Every structure is written in C-alpha cells, then in structure tokens.
Amino acid sequence: MHVINLLDTGLKTYTAMDQLQRQLHAEIATGQHPNACLVFEAESTYTAGRHTQAHDIIDDTLPIIETDRAGSITWHGPGQLVCYPLVKLAAPVDVIKYIRAVEGAVLDTLQHTFNLDVHRIDGRAGVWIGNRKISAIGLKISQEATLHGISLNVNTDPEVAFAGVIPCGITDATVTSMAAEGVDTTLGAVVDPLIAALANRLEPLLAPTLSEGDVHVYHPAG
C-alpha cells in the first residue's frame, strides 16, 4: 500500500486534502494508481456528513464544510490523526465488511500497540472506550473504490475540539483522546501500526493491484 504521510509538512487545510484524495480516488478507481493511504493533520475544521441534522450544530456561526461521507458533523484539527485508506475493492463490494475492516484496524492498533481497552458499540460507527468515542469512521465507496476514512484523537485539546457541535450527532456519549486515556504519544508514532493493521484487515477485500513498476508517486507541495 502506497503511504502518503504529510504529517511532517504541517497542518493541512481540509479542502486541499479533499482535493488530493479525489485525485487519487479517480486514478485508483480506473486502475492507474495503486491502493494508498493518505495521512495528515488538519487545521481546525468542521465537516458535515450526509446524515447531519440541524440540531447537531449548537453554534450556527461556525464555518462548516459539507462533505459526501457517511455520518454526521465532526471536527478535524491539531492533535487528531486523519487517515484515508483509498483502495479498490473486489466486486461485489460488501460495504459492511469494509466498514468493519477499517474499524477493526483501529481496534487492533489501540489494543495491541497502545494497550487501550477499546471496543465497538452495536449500531454506532467508530471505536469507543466505555461511552467515550476515541475514533470516528466516515466512509464513501464510489466506482468500487473508497474515499474518506478514519479520524483518531491522539492529543487533541478538549477545550477546542468539537466545541459548538454535537460530535457525530450523538447526544448520550462523549469524545475522548489517547492522551485523555493516559497514553502519551505522538501522531507519528501511531501511523506505522495503523497502516500495518489496515493492510492486514483490508487485504481480503481488495481487487488485484498494480505492479511495483506502475506506481505513480505523488509529491504534494507544502
């Protein structure tokens, strides 16, 4: 899997990363680029998925970017790792298996590498510790290729993150981070185990991939 890790290039605007993921998706969907993972840390941004309701937004003065992923409103920003697995799935596509595989990769990473007691909650996407959501999953599949993905709260500022919205539209739960749960680490330290877990979980679901000689490597500026 081709990893595009932009953590060392500073905070990224959501719109720039969205444009890049769509460029990659178009090539992956048509067999012109190998499966990829796009990794970055965003500037503070609110995005509203397809299931956002008006009452999910407490502060109606917030600038909010509408997006085509599943789920409700969420926040991206400093201290949060964003990872988009952009892959071509084998037909027929099983959406539920794909969602469970992505969630499973986050579970594997947090359980096995960072010893956190994380789990799923029936009927709710994402990864949880008790009634506290530590990772949101928002996905889309088009032309049998995937967009969007994982946001994992590593060391977010609780006074800033998610302020003004009801995260994911869930009123009877809270959000947390790895730092709040006692894990002192960096976004960079999470990347390798997360990518390895994604590769392992997704491998059975993938369509045949390009050969090494066909790889088109992106070098985004800034």
Automatic annotation (TrEMBL):
UniProt family annotation: Belongs to the LipB family.
Main location: cytoplasm
Limits of the BPL/LPL catalytic domain: 31-206
Enzyme class: transferase
Active site: C168
Coiled-coil zones: none
EC code(s) of this entry: 2.3.1.181
Pfam families according to UniProt: LplA-B_cat
Protein name, entry field: Octanoyltransferase
Function: Catalyzes the transfer of endogenously produced octanoic acid from octanoyl-acyl-carrier-protein onto the lipoyl domains of lipoate-dependent enzymes. Lipoyl-ACP can also act as a substrate although octanoyl-ACP is likely to be the physiological substrate.
Lineage, highest ranks first: Bacteria, Bacillati, Actinomycetota, Actinomycetes, Micrococcales
Chain positions of site Lowers pKa of active site Cys: K133
Annotated binding of substrate, by residue: A136, I137, G138, G149, I150, S151
Miscellaneous comment text of the record: In the reaction, the free carboxyl group of octanoic acid is attached via an amide linkage to the epsilon-amino group of a specific lysine residue of lipoyl domains of lipoate-dependent enzymes.
